Structures are given as structure tokens and as C-alpha cells.
Amino acid sequence: NLNWLEISYNKIKKFPKEICYLENLEILSLKVNAIEIIPKEIGNLMNLKLLDISQNSLKSIPEEIYCLKKLEVLSLKENLLKSISKEIGNLKYLKSLDISYNKIEEIPKEITCLENLERLYLNGNELKNIPEEIESLK
Questions:
Q1: Three-state SS for 104?
Q2: Residues contacting 138, CB < 8 A, separation 6+
Q3: Could you say which of 4, 99, 109, 114 would form a disulfide bridge with 131 (CB–CB 3.0 to 4.6 Å)?
Q4: CA 32 to the chain's CA centroid
Q5: What is the helix (H) or strand (E) element at residue 121, kind and residue range?
Q6: What is the rounded CA–CA span in Å between residue 120 and residue 5?
Q7: What pLDDT digit, counting tens, does each position of 31-73 carry?
């Protein structure tokens, strides 16, 4: 029945794969650790609404994250991400996306498919430009 799991402010280097089998989980926070890799099994968390993996050492995120259809809040700030997949557009219920303070150079135009997006944090990256289509996020 566990639906909220907070394991923040620790020294975890390896994402505990066992978490990916907590099917009722709606809120998962692993911020401020030393996690380098998220297992693809994260795609099992189909009820997840909030995922906070900010302030870790992530260089990439698995495509399976973009299959979490109920996700409303995704925070990946202060990692080492260089890109965001165009699959980001699949997260139709996403209301808040924080990818600030990474090394991202380009935002995929598919971000404009996020019609429920209310908050978008892009500061502190290496962006050269933003997609013209962003105006559709009115």
C-alpha cells in the first residue's frame, strides 16, 4: 500500500531497483544523493505522479520514464544531463518540469505537446535557443 517514498539527502549511489516494484507508489523522492543511473524498471511505476531525482549525478534518463503516463511533476534539476528525449512529449499530464542546472543544449520541440504544463524550469543550462513552437504552451 506504500504510496509515498522519500529517500532524499543520503549517499545512495545506486538506484534501489526494488523500488520499481512498489506498484502503488505515487510520490518518489531521491533528491540529493549520488545516483548515476536510473534502471529501466522505473517504467513499472505506472501510478507515479511525482518523481524528484534532483541533485544527483545523472548523465541520462531511461526512455521508460516517458511511459509514466500519470506523472505530473518531474524534477531532474542539478544533474549532468546533456539532453532531453523528444519522448518528453508523451507525458500528457505533466504540470511541472524542472530540468534547470544541467548541461542541456537543446529543448526538443515535442515539449510543446505538454498541454497541461504550468511550470517549466530551464535556467542554468547551456541552451543556444528554445523552440519557436514554445508559444503554443500559452
A1: coil
A2: none
A3: 109
A4: 14
A5: strand 119-121
A6: 24
A7: 999 999 999 999 999 999 999 999 999 999 999 999 999 999 9
Quick one: CA torsion of 82, 33, 45, 22, rounded to 10 degrees?
A: 170
How far apart CA 115 and CA 86 sit, in angstroms, is 15
- Residue 125 has which C-alpha cell? 543550462
All three cell numbers of 134: 514554445
Long-range contacts made by residues 118-121, C-beta under 8 angstroms, separation at least 24?
A: 119/95, 120/96, 121/77, 121/97
Give the cell for residue 47: 501510478
The region, left, alpha or beta by phi > 0 then psi within -120 to 50, assigned to residue 124 is left
Which residue do the cell numbers 549517499 mark? 11
Per-residue pLDDT at 138:
74
Domain limits, the chain: 4-137
CATH of segment(s) 4-137: 3.80.10.10
The model's pTM is 0.95
Which residue has cell 504552451? 137
- Give Cα separations from 60 to 34, 64, 93, 133 (angstroms): 14, 12, 22, 25
